[in-house]
Write a structure and sequence with these properties.
The protein is an alpha/beta fold. It contains 20 helices and 6 strands. 34% of the residues are buried.
Amino acid sequence: MLRPADGLPPVVADRAALVRTAAEFAAGSGPVAVDAERASGFRYSQRAYLVQLRRSGAGTALVDPIPLGSDLSELAPALTGPEWVLHAANQDLACLAEVGLAPSALFDTELAGRLAGLPRVGLGPMVEQLLGLGLEKGHGAADWSRRPLPEDWLVYAALDVEVLVELRDVLAALLTEQGKYEWAMQEFEAVRTAGPAAPRAEPWRRTSGIHKLRKPRALAAVRSLWEARDRLAAERDIAPGRVLPDAAIVDAAVTAPETAHALAGMAVFRGRSQRRLTNYWFAALQEAAALDADALPRPSAPADGPPPVARWADRDPDAAARLAAARAALAATGEQWSVPVENLLQPDLLRRLCWTPPADGDVGAAMRKGGARDWQVALLGEQLEAALATRAT
């Protein structure tokens, strides 16, 4: 597949064309294939820079949200009701919601492939395996904020929805044959209704290389530089790593330069683009250096849940035994049903159950409270109940 079967459609970039597209898709039939392209790695925001749609009777539409003020709400009535077919839906639903679009029903081809036990669940490999077609790939990580968008990028984008509905039908038949279709429906609904992820309490701790630092003052420097970078990146809508690399943040925290001149002499900071920001970065370092001891960050992030599994055997041998038994049960079930263990039950939920079993012994209720779906409770409830009764020998 090198070109869309119906030819490359013109990009929808004005309100009149959007209204016409909405009418065409309202008159179409069956599910709607949906995809979105962002500029991750280039922009701070995760907004959609292109939205691709395809429906029987309507063909393919490539919609540019940027000249439309990132408001595609005219499409919403036409797309409300039909099932949406997306690949890795959790990556796109947030940016689609930002432009006014949300599904009332969902089929996720990547998640379906995982539940069906397929060895490779990327869109290209799945299309090749199940439909016998090769997709023209190669621009997924491109800077989709670029304008005008090159024609070969638009071809790539159109092909991403070209056979998505056909892929959905094959996967639905496969899941039905395996007795997993209802599982998939519950998983898709969980994805559809999940909402945005809660913000991290201390996102600066994800700075690459921070594991090298243990002293609170150095961690404070990382935090201050990270927050300064984040403000600047948001203001300029540039990916934070392009404003200042993580390695430079860690290097400055370790070196602790005492003057702006010393900071400007460090590897990344001596570059022309960084020299203009020397005082900005040095002010962030000074802010960290001036903090009172009680305002410094803790050496490690505050615990939200069980401790690292490597410590369980020492801290609670029974919990370690419960986890080992539970993991063995899930591994056997995953092999029996050809489903990855992480799709049988969220790993974090499994650890929480094993560290602190429900006091009332109602494992099913505890699973549901932790976000498990009905099919997971039915499939795993008894096995986990037995595993949670395990004791260290």
